[in-house]
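Exercise 3.2. Students should predict the tertiary structure of the chain below and write it as structure tokens, then compare their answer with the key that follows.

Predict this chain's 3D structure.
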Amino acid sequence: MVTEGQQTASAPDAARTFPKGFLWGSATASYQVEGAAAEDGRTPSIWDTYARTPGRVRNGDTGDIATDHYHRWREDVALMAELGLGAYRFSLAWPRIQPTGRGPAVQKGLDFYRRLVDELLDKGIQPVATLYHWDLPQELEDAGGWPARATAERFAEYTALAADALGDRVRTWTTLNEPWCSAFLGYGSGVHAPGRTEPVAALRAAHHLNLAHGLAVQALRDRVRADAQCSVTLNFHHVRPLTDGDADADAVRRIDGLANRVFTGPMLQGAYPEDVLKDTAALTDWSFVRDGDLRQIHQPLDFLGVNYYTPTLVSDADGGASHTSDGHGRSEHSPWPGADRVAFHQPPGDTTAMGWAVDPTGLYDLLRRLASDFPRTPLVITENGAAFDDYADPAGQVNDPARIAYLRGHLAAVHQAVVDGADVRGYFLWSLLDNFEWAHGYSKRFGAVYVDYPTGRRIPKASARWYSEVVRTGVLPGA
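Answer key:
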């Protein structure tokens, strides 16, 4: 469980020491690692369908095998224990538990997660379960997907099944991972499953994901142990203006509204931001928001999950919008409905293999903002990491100094935010394993552990050993 630690002292000899009780972990997602796509009753998710559609995923890669975590979970948990991780954040595959998105659970699917959780607990590793990391059952997409209100209702039913099966073991729950991606990349730009390009559908999806979150929190509270914690994970965009001009400041406001406040508004404050409703009024009157929805969405949370990789740089666009440098994949269709006068720019500095700028100051600034905006809500970094072009040398070693530098810089930013008053209680490295990186297939390696895909062999990278020492000591070493 995420517990409240003592504030870190700012004295020089304690400047790199994290608070007592700070939670250290790593993370994965079901479709990216499990494989076993058609075993034990599992049916296709939207990502199975999307990956099998020609031209959608690089090299035609799919998650059919992924890293074969479904069969190699004991080995993977042993790796976690070897690295000394305090927690493992994983996601449940909805179509493995409830293949059609309706009706009773498949016990073989639940049994996989029961075994995984029991093994984690046996090794002293806290299980952190995410209910949804993008693998919607295809049958629910065929019935309308997230733009349809019924999907939120089905999600509450699925949550109840998972909570009834695992609520006695799992103490930390996350409802949704990055609903912005599900809504705006899945239904706006189409670069994620299900690949639709309908701006109004993207806004409807955002609302129904918000509603699904609120209904799921209520289902969890009714079923899980009294000391359980409920959260949501958002991929916050730290948005900066290209210049100091008023027009660029307004571009920041627009993107911040669509990226961040369209979720934090209803989830944490009980209302959609008025400027977001106004910015999108030419597309929709938001009549899909029914009486009582905001009350359902606005549920108390025990902490807020924060995913951060890189900042976002924008400006006003006199000649029309440009989203090709927003870091979310190329498409003729924008994931930013209502932001018709915003241009995105590549931030300066070094980049990762994803083309994302390496800038820890964005994480520091984001944490300070969240601490100011939501001072009573603890924060946990639920994803942070980087992809680089890793390879195993002839001796079978994987040296990744660029990743170590990335992690050192970002952990220093987290530490400084804590020193300056942000209530940050944990950090999860993305990712435990190299895996299926969505539309990039297997071409991008985020893992602390290298995976040789033809054999499935796991090789801890130098960064894994470095991170393991930070976890063991709670101290961030200097450069």
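Discussion points: The mean pLDDT is 96. DSSP finds 15 helices and 13 strands in the chain.
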